[in-house]
From TrEMBL:
One GO molecular-function entry: corrinoid adenosyltransferase activity
Family: Belongs to the Cob(I)alamin adenosyltransferase family.
The protein's name in its UniProt record: Corrinoid adenosyltransferase
Organism lineage string: Bacteria, Pseudomonadati, Bacteroidota, Chitinophagia, Chitinophagales
Organism: Panacibacter ginsenosidivorans
Protein EC: 2.5.1.17
Length: 189
């Protein structure tokens, strides 16, 4: 027998963290891991729009790390030490940094701000980057409200947004899509 997708336990605006603690669906912890889930979904969309075996593999790995982050954020921090929650490692951040450096090796120097756009894949990469920054801000907000967030989570999200920015440029480069330079309008008197 298949599991039912609906439980009806959230009909009154509450949900359970991993560990069983009930919280309102508006709780910042729920907002934060929901944003990480949104980020993960958009990375799947981005992956569907690009055709580069190495980048596709890397994005799948990132999706796995985001599930790890989501699990950590969805867990009652008082009960987490008693559970087997997957963990993030410093090497995950190092991997992102190496990927950024490798892509930057083939990219032209950036001499101006870049407007998102030029192709669906490039635009999607920028949307993903923005969602990643929002997830990072929410994690920082949790910390500022004395809610536990693993420090590596914030560091990973920060580096991931950098990776996504460079990936957007890299996608443009390998697909011969011209970057759109931002040319600010200056009022002349």
């Amino acid at each position: 027998m298949a599991l039912k997708i609906y439980t009806k336990t959230g009909d009154k605006g509450k949900t359970s963290l991993i560990g069983g603690t009930k919280v309102p669906k508006s709780h910042i912890r729920i907002e934060t891991y929901g944003t990480v889930d949104e980020l993960n979904s958009y990375i799947g969309l981005l992956n569907d729009h690009i055709n580069n075996v190495h980048s596709n593999k890397m994005l799948r790995e990132i999706q796995d790390r985001l599930f790890t982050i989501g699990s950590s954020l969805a867990c009652d921090p008082d009960k987490e030490p008693l559970m087997k929650i997957p963990d993030l490692k410093e090497e995950d951040i190092t991997t992102l940094e190496k990927e950024i450096d490798a892509m930057n090796e083939v990219l032209p120097a950036m001499k101006h701000f870049i407007l998102p756009g030029g192709s669906i894949a490039v635009s999607t990469a920028h949307i993903v980057r923005c969602i990643c920054r929002r997830a990072e801000r929410l994690c920082v907000n949790m910390q500022e409200h004395d809610m536990f967030v693993e420090a590596l989570v914030i560091k990973y999200l920060n580096r991931l947004s950098d990776y996504l920015f460079v990936l957007a440029r890299y996608i443009a480069h390998i697909n011969n899509v011209e970057e759109i330079a931002w040319k600010p309008r200056v009022n002349q008197k």
